[in-house]
Amino acid sequence: MTNGDAAEQTSLEHISSVASTPTLIPAFERVGSLTAADIRVRFAEACTAWLTRSSSLETRTAYTRELRQFLDFVGIKPDQLEQLVTIRPNQVAAWRDHMRERGLSNVAIVRKITVLRSLFSYLQTYGYAGANPAHSDFVTVPPVPRDGKTVGLSPDDCRRLIDAPDAKIPAGIRDRVLLAVLAYTGCRVGELTRLRVMDYKETGGHKVLEIRGKGGKDRRIPLHPEAVERLEDWLAIAGNREPGALALFRPQKTARGRGRDGFLPRPMTRRAVQILIERYVQKLRLDPAVTVHSLRVTALTTARERGSDIIDLQDFAGHADPRTTLGYIRNRDRLSKSPAYVLLY
Predict the structure, then answer these.
(1) How many CB atoms lie within 10 A of CB 251?
(2) Is the pLDDT of residue 138 over 80?
(3) 157 pLDDT higher than 70
(4) Residue 77 burial (C-beta neighbours within 10 Å; 0-12, 13-18, 19+)
(5) Confidence of residue 323 (pLDDT cuts 50, 70, 90)
(6) Full-model pTM
(7) What is the rounded average pLDDT of the residues 302-310?
(8) Who has the most CB within 10 Å: 94, 172, 188, 204?
(9) What pairs with residue 209 in β-bridges?
């Protein structure tokens, strides 16, 4: 087993060889015992329950990816999850160091270790009697930037970006409202692609979007007047006003038609939106690190700078914890206040 010692390897081989025998291995239940075959079933059930506890497809997909990367590193097959009983802190630390050597960012490393830590914590809740080898008492993670990694936009650059699409062609009209919705609601790309025509409503004198967020958490966000105007223009030219679950943002039928020949009856993919943002960023010669997520950072940072309360921002962003929201706030004036500018020799 990769990075495992001889004793752990022997134990692993023993578990595999006696999977159908009544050998007793106290992986679960401090009182009583289970056979190796029982252990395999229990681990599979527990890992499945851990993944499916989140109603967010994006979260489940990400967790599955991170777990598979760790299993590949330590040499555990996906259908032999009971071998997780052999994992020790030194193997988790070796994975951390391996990722650092590959050039992964501290943010990515922390995310992956946190996912593994979450799995073992859940296993313990499920009845696993062993320790959590990814616990912070055993494995430290590298520091992450206080401001986060995603690049934010200045208000001027954000204005340039949302005005970049050509308002004379149907696809450009769609792009203008798509960018405006991202910039004025701070929604995630997955939330954007899930929007339906029926999610655009009026209530209490406000035009709103009902956004289905991560973990099945829905929230209602009032739309800025500029976003409303652009959205009305888009609905007028796209024929999107039919009732039902029609996607709000749909791909054009052909690339060359640019929407003049209509739009497909399905939602844009997240990747399509990401490519769209990349194209406009290149066109405007903005920072190439700007992504679709940059508009979410920009919305939260700008609202905070202009006086919005952090609790209101938390609700606006759909975060469960205000500390998560604070991680999106960029201090755009930090460099200009640097002590470097007051030094005089």
Answers:
(1) 20
(2) yes
(3) yes
(4) exposed
(5) confident
(6) 0.64
(7) 85
(8) 188
(9) 200, 221
- Identify the structural domains of the chain with CATH numbers, from first to last: 6-126 (no CATH), 155-326 (1.10.443.10)
The H-or-E segment that residue 322 falls in is helix 322-326
Strands of the sheet containing 218-222, edge to edge, are 200-203, 206-212, 218-222
User: Do residues 253 and 262 make contact, with C-beta atoms less than 8 angstroms apart?
Assistant: yes
In whole angstroms, give the CA distance from residue 68 to residue 47.
12
Q: How far is CA 10 from CA 4, 24, 71, 75, in A?
A: 10, 16, 18, 14
The 3-state DSSP class for residue 139 equals: coil
296, two tokens: 């979410």
* Adjacent-strand bridge partners of 252: 263
Residues in the chain: 345
Listing DSSP states for 58-125 in one string gives HHHHHHHHHHHHHHHHHT--TT-GGGGGG--HHHHHHHHHHHHHTT--HHHHHHHHHHHHHHHHHHHH
d(CA 245, CA 15): 50
Phi, then psi, of 150 in degrees rounded to 5: -65, 130
- pLDDT grade, residue 34 (50/70/90)? low
**Does the pLDDT at position 145 exceed 70?**
no
Structure tokens at 202: 């009026």
